[in-house]
Design brief:
By secondary structure, the chain is an all-beta fold. It has no helices and 11 strands. An 11-stranded antiparallel sheet has the order 1-2-3-4-5-6-7-8-9-10-11, with no helix packed on it. It is globular.
Amino acid sequence: MGKQYGCAFEYDAYGRLYKKKFNGINYEQHYYQNGYLYKISFNSSTVWQATTIDEYSRVRAANIGATAATWGYNTTTNLLTQIKGTGVQQYDYDFSGSTRNLTNRTNGLKTETFGYDTGNLD
């Protein structure tokens, strides 16, 4: 039987995820500013950091490692429409108008389609 590795979670005073430890050695740490997640690090190296947050507290731009990325939103529903990494990859999102559930996610090569039970719980 191979080695088993556990994962442990720590939360801050507000109940937000603060640290996720893997195999007792590696860890992912979450940083918050004004109540919102703005940075994630892995073993003290920043892997994601918001660079622009709009008036609705939505991420509009962030660095994912060394790659700059932007987030787009539908101006009517305020739902996510796109995440685009500069020179890397782009994800487009479609949501149901009535339930606001994610129905499709496309990355240029592949489209994933999502279905939901009658209570729209999944």
